[in-house]
Amino acid sequence: xxxxxxxxxxxxxxxxxxxxxxxxxxxxxxxxxxxxxxxxxxxxxxxxxxxxxxxxxxxxxxxxxxxxxxxxxxxxxxxxxxxxxxxxxxxxxxxxxxxxxxxxxxxxxxxxxxxxxxxxxxxxxxxxxxxxxxxxxxxxxxxxxxxxxxxxxxxxxxxxxxxxxxxxxxxxxxxxxxxxxxxxxxxxxxxxxxxxxxxxxxxxxxxxxxxxxxxxxxxxxxxxxxxxxxxxxxxxxxxxxxxxxx
Length: 246
Hints:
Radius of gyration: 28 Å
Largest sheet: 4 strands, antiparallel
Structural class: alpha+beta
Number of strands: 6
Number of helices: 8
Strand content: 15-25%
Order of helices and strands: HHHHEEHHEHEEHE
Mean pLDDT: 79
Strand order of the largest sheet: 4-5-3-6
Low-confidence stretches: none
Helix content: 55-70%
């Protein structure tokens, strides 16, 4: 290791003090690259648009910006005799505010489904980890990285095992003279484990009668069962089951 240090000094033409500074900066940036990359790999594995490179760059950028305040004595007013105090927390506040715009960019609405909330949250925590790495709080940065990975990976399995209400938008159309009565429709839905949250009616072009509703159930398999039953009904001209969720 000493030989490597001497080689770097000679190769780069640096003094021991400057070489030590550059190695410290490299450590800050390298730890941010590693932490952001690990979280980004998890997102890329699950096919998210903001994945490996995005999270790595977010974490690295946060670390670099914090280095501006951490090493301000090396670049700010070297020849000045006055005393100037800079607050590093203001930089961190600016980073976390600005990252909100990037997080908002990965959230999108498709029908009644909102997607990207978890990815936006992962970008936010990645920026926070970058701040920790940037100021040299490595122990907290490592713990935050492990915690974030635990939430994204382990909590996913817990969430899938938890009993939750599933919602789906349901539209079913009949010929005007072959409409299934509301009582029979409600009974059919109850038999398949659904309850109706909202129900509206529509007559289209004087020939097609439409029921439009929001369904609620506790088992995703009920959707497939209901689809098969509706497909077997001759009176049904058209139907749509659109699950909602993150």
